[in-house]
Design brief:
single chain, Rossmann fold, 2 domains, 4-stranded parallel β-sheet, 10 helices, about 30% strand, binds adenosine-5'-triphosphate, metal-binding, nucleotide-binding, phospholipid metabolism, Lipid_Phosphate_FormReg, lipid biosynthesis
Length: about 325
């Protein structure tokens, strides 16, 4: 690489994320703040651009949605530069769930936070040989995600995919799975669950309670696991509120909190979405890389979101 191509601050810009109308604003602000802008030209570019930039850059920003951030983090990790490179998020996607969870309210605010905000070191999830920052969701078909409307995403977040899958696929094939969670330092013991699941949802920075931007503790070395049992299908098709289905009292929800887990399919391979990017496999090994990613966070970010708002971990005694 020639010296002209190296830079301390690089912004990877996805021009087609969200509704695409962010490009001019992001380019102007990025220029004002001393970023060298690298635009993606096709799917897959963001990882390569971040990998190329990371050895020289102190700061690599991802301008796009959760998928773009995921690609940038994977690129920085591929350059083995997570310890020396800060990764910033500039929310320009449809859902921008991760940005909301770390207190970044919009494009302009993202640059204010980059200049003045706190830096925190947060956990990253690993799924086989790939990384995710926000969530890993199994059982959502790619077809259904692409058909999910912007309005629906804005209203329900990832639950929109669940609802949409049930509505568009109609009769949904449940997944015969075995899920083994490792013991957690806080005393939760290692456990195995086996059965027919509709969906399996693993949160690193987000939790699946029904609220669009519910934030998990992303510095505790733990993943939050939610399994939606197949017995819930009837309720979903019947139109029961998803918020209720994923709520504290549901008998068809299994919740665990663990530093690592393995999900094994007893049938065909399963399609997983890592922050919106797809991965198909029969066996998925998930772990946390504790506080490995340094990011600028806004004032709204809470290291321990459980204060006063406990995630419903209680489960029936027979589980
Ligand atoms: N120049 C490009 N042309 C076409 N596709 C692209 C380009 N750059 C990136 N992509 C694709 O865009 C997807 C990432 O979109 P991203 O998730 O960032 O936005 P979004 O779907 O609008 O937002 P969110 O995930 O927050 O709902 C990736 O799958 C990537 O392959």
């Amino acid at each position: 690489m020639t010296p002209a191509e190296t830079s301390d601050r690089v912004l990877v810009l996805n021009p087609v994320s969200g509704n695409g109308n962010h490009v001019d604003d992001v380019a102007t602000l990025a220029g004002d703040h001393g970023f060298d802008i690298r635009r993606t030209e096709e799917a897959g570019d963001a990882t390569r651009l971040a990998r190329e930039a990371a050895p020289d850059a102190d700061l690599v920003a991802a301008a796009g949605g959760d998928g773009t951030l995921n690609a940038v983090v994977n690129g920085v990790a591929a350059a083995d530069a997570l310890e020396t490179t800060t990764v910033a998020v500039v929310p320009a996607g449809t859902g921008n769930n991760f940005a909301a969870n770390v207190g970044i309210e919009g494009i302009e605010h993202a640059f204010t936070v980059i200049e003045a905000g706190r830096r925190r070191s947060i956990d990253i999830g690993t799924a086989n040989d790939r990384l995710f920052v926000n969530s890993c969701v199994g059982g959502i078909t790619a077809e259904a995600s692409s058909e999910t409307t912007t309005e629906s995403k804005a209203e329900l977040g990832v639950l929109a995919y669940v609802k949409n899958t049930v509505e568009t696929v109609g009769e949904f094939d449940s997944l015969p799975l075995r899920v083994e969670t490792a013991s957690a330092p806080d005393g939760e013991r290692a456990r195995a669950w086996e059965g027919e699941a509709l969906f399996v949802l693993i949160g690193n920075c987000r939790r699946f309670t029904g609220a669009r931007t519910a934030q998990a503790n992303v510095e505790d070395g733990l993943l939050e696991v939610t399994i939606v049992e197949d017995a819930a299908t009837a309720n979903l098709v019947g139109g029961a509120a998803l918020e209720g289905l994923l709520g504290r009292d549901s008998a068809h929800i299994i919740r665990r909190r663990a530093p690592s887990l393995t999900i094994e399919s007893r049938g065909d391979s399963v399609e997983y979405s890592l922050d919106g990017e797809m991965l198909e496999t029969e066996t998925l090994r998930l772990e946390t890389a504790v506080q490995r990613l340094t990011i600028p966070v806004g004032d709204g970010y809470r290291p321990d979101p459980d204060d006063g708002d406990r995630w419903p971990l209680e489960v029936p005694a027979n589980r």
